């Protein structure tokens, strides 16, 4: 069991802070998941395509790193709530000129509101760590942007804040003894005063991946990934006896304690960035598809379940996932390019484990993903996999018999796609149920056509595991592997056709 202890001389102060934070943090029913939209892609989708993807995934909250006019126009009348940003390279100008700030708000906010539902403005991003020379004007920039909103009578609808890197919080484990880097207090104190007076959130970027990587083995992987832990594996704050089962909650509570040390106990925390990379360099072995899937799936469930943190149970921590797309133009290591949930073509990088956790991003696992035959796959392998699906896989393949809705087009790719997708949904879209020795792939494009409606569209498959049969994979050597063509003397589809002919003849005789 991980544990930290503080000296007894500070215990009384901590207990007072504990009570202050607990009393002022009120339950909030509006926890939500949003997504950051980066644009460093060599083939960045058109804004209308981006919005179409957001709608398909029922994403209702996004953060832009700028105030791109094309995106703001495309987001108009979409119902999606938008956070726009003052880029870091514009911060100095805005922080030194009230009129520059007013012009920025007029051009990038007033011109689009209310058709585009702008709810917040992020003034800069991680200013203290990325452009520390501009920190001196940060509070002025916040105030000038807010004054422009007041002048347009939009200050109640649109909040103003600045995303902060969690690295500014020192001694963050245990959370109860966390405090901000004191060298920044001359900026942080007036900044927190501003947030408190305007009812704006403290925006925090939380990256358990980096905390894990930099801990030299102190932080277990499961603790970083938000995996369920046995009580004896949880981290215990010895000063408050509060148990922490993941880095994310501990860091959010550390932010609350750090603010409390500066006597601010009623500013809500919003996490503006969090995620996990799906690919990395050789020295980043834990940047994998499975870990990215695990972290983001656990994070989404955690936020939408309104769990709160151990110190603030039931208090919303709305969170924006970093990020919507993989960004191949990002500089730096391989991991920097692979934080996205989707590729530029809209295909999911991985299929989130989100069944039963709500609607946002759950379309990937409940409604709108399909299993299809790969283009260019070996026809013999496709036929063998088709035979397996309609045989040992126990898929109802009657719809692809001659005269039935999905018989046309009469080729192995079309018939295999129907069988693969049926099996995929029959098995509840479980991992590895869309492989079939490498000839199948997952897509978000509905393969239904004409009167041929695939199971994922019709809802006939409800996600229950049918007969506990495992789909064949590349490494499968068990008796469940798809047989070679002719294993049954004829293909299973051929057998079904013959059976149908025989039954038809019997009906005529009777």
Strand content: 5-15%
How many DSSP-defined strands?
Answer: 18
Give a quick account of the main beta sheet: strands, pairing sense, barrel closure.
9 strands, parallel
Mean pLDDT: 82
Overall structural class, as computed from helix and strand content, comes to alpha/beta
CATH topology heading of the largest domain: TIM Barrel
CATH class of the largest domain: Alpha Beta
Report the radius of gyration as a whole number of Å. Answer: 27 Å
Question: Count of DSSP helices?
Answer: 17
Would you identify the CATH architecture of the largest domain?
Answer: Alpha-Beta Barrel
Could you write a compact summary of the structure shown?
The chain has helices at residues 11-24, 47-56, 69-74, 91-95, 98-110, 127-130, 138-151, 185-198, 208-213, 221-224, 247-261, 289-304, 363-366, 379-390, 412-426, 455-458, 492-509, and strands spanning 2-4, 33-37, 61-64, 81-86, 117-123, 159-161, 164-165, 169-170, 179-180, 202-205, 235-237, 242-244, 269-274, 308-309, 312-313, 319-321, 370-373, 440-443.
């Amino acid at each position: 069991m991980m544990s930290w202890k503080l000296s007894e001389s500070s215990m009384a102060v901590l207990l007072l802070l504990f009570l202050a934070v607990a009393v002022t943090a009120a339950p909030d029913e509006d926890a939500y998941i949003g997504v950051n939209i980066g644009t460093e892609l060599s083939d960045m989708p058109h804004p209308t395509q981006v919005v179409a993807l957001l709608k398909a995934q029922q994403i209702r909250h996004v953060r832009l790193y700028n105030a791109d006019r094309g995106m703001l126009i495309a987001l108009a009348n979409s119902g999606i709530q938008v956070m726009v940003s003052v880029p870091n390279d514009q911060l100095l100008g805005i922080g030194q000129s009230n009129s520059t700030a007013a012009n920025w708000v007029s051009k990038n906010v007033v011109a689009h509101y209310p058709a585009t539902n702008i709810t917040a403005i992020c003034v800069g991003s991680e200013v203290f760590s990325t452009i520390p020379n501009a920190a001196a004007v940060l509070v002025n920039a916040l105030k000038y942007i807010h004054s422009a909103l007041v002048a347009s009578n939009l200050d109640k609808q649109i909040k103003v804040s600045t995303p902060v890197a969690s690295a500014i919080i020192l001694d963050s484990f245990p959370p109860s003894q966390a405090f901000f880097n004191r060298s920044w207090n001359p900026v942080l104190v007036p900044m927190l005063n501003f947030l408190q007076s305007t009812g704006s959130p403290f925006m925090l970027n939380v990256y358990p991946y980096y905390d894990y990587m930099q801990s030299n083995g102190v932080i277990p992987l499961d603790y970083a990934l938000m995996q369920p832990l046995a009580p004896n594996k949880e981290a215990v704050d010895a000063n408050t006896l509060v148990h922490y089962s993941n880095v994310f909650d501990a860091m959010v509570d550390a932010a609350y304690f750090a603010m409390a040390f500066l006597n601010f106990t009623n500013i809500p925390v919003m996490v503006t960035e969090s995620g996990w990379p799906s690919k990395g360099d050789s020295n980043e072995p834990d940047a994998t598809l499975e870990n990215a899937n695990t972290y983001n799936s656990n994070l989404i469930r955690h936020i939408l379940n309104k769990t709160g943190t151990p110190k603030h149970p039931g208090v919303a921590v709305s969170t924006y996932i970093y990020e919507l797309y993989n960004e191949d133009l990002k500089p730096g290591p391989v991991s920097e390019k692979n934080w996205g949930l989707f590729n530029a073509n809209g295909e999911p990088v991985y299929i989130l484990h989100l069944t039963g956790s709500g609607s946002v991003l759950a379309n990937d696992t409940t409604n709108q993903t399909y299993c299809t035959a790969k283009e260019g796959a070996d026809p013999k392998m496709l036929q063998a996999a088709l035979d397996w699906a309609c045989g040992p896989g126990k898929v109802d393949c009657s719809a692809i018999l001659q005269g039935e809705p999905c018989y046309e087009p009469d080729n192995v790719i079309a018939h295999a796609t129907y069988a693969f997708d049926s099996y995929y949904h029959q098995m509840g879209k479980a991992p590895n149920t869309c492989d079939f020795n490498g000839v199948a792939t997952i897509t978000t494009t509905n393969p239904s056509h004409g009167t041929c409606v695939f199971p994922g569209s019709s809802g006939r498959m409800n996600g229950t595991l049918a007969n506990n049969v495992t789909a064949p994979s590349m490494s499968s050597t068990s008796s469940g592997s798809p047989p070679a063509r002719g294993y049954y003397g004829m293909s299973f589809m051929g057998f079904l056709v013959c059976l149908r002919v025989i039954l038809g003849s019997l009906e005529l005789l009777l």
